[in-house]
Design a protein that fits this description.
Blueprint: H1 5-10, E1 18-21, E2 25-29, E3 37-43, H2 56-76, E4 84-87, E5 103-107
Antiparallel strand pairs: 1-2, 2-3, 3-5, 4-5
Bound molecules: adenosine monophosphate.
Length: about 120
């Protein structure tokens, strides 16, 4: 898989407002926030383009870590109790722009359903 803007953020080659970091996961504020809280949570490995590349055998632990990170960040940013939305765009029809799997964590306002 090729390099993306997220690879550069992982390597700290371009700035990002990092809110959480472990050996395997990085989370930073979305540059075009769609809610008062809008954080992107990504694995540091670059081989997973989108949800279509996930398998239980290879990625169970990583997926656990991503969701644990989401809970941690939601608490840290004050939306754990009020509620938050996790979005994983996958492929062209979803509007996915960056081909490096990422969870959007959105919160701090009432969300609508269905999404646009
Ligand atoms: P998606 O459409 O699901 O692929 O989401 C990609 C997200 O990455 C969008 O919400 C963008 O605003 C965000 N984004 C793109 N470049 C950056 C950047 N340099 N720093 C933070 N967020 C970014």
């Amino acid at each position: 898989m090729g390099e993306t803007i997220f690879t550069k953020i992982i390597r700290k080659e371009i700035p990002a407002e990092i809110v959480y970091e472990t050996e395997s996961v990085l989370a930073f504020k979305d540059i075009r926030p769609q809610a008062p809280v809008h954080v992107l949570i990504i694995p540091k490995i670059t081989e997973i383009e989108s949800a279509k590349d996930l398998s239980k055998e290879k990625h169970s632990q990583l997926l656990g870590e991503l969701f644990e990170a989401a809970n941690h960040i939601a608490k840290k940013l004050g939306v754990f109790e009020s509620g938050f939305r996790l979005v994983l765009n996958s492929g062209p029809d979803s509007g996915q722009e960056v081909p490096h799997i990422h969870l959007h964590l959105l919160g701090g306002r009432k969300m609508n359903w269905p999404p646009g």
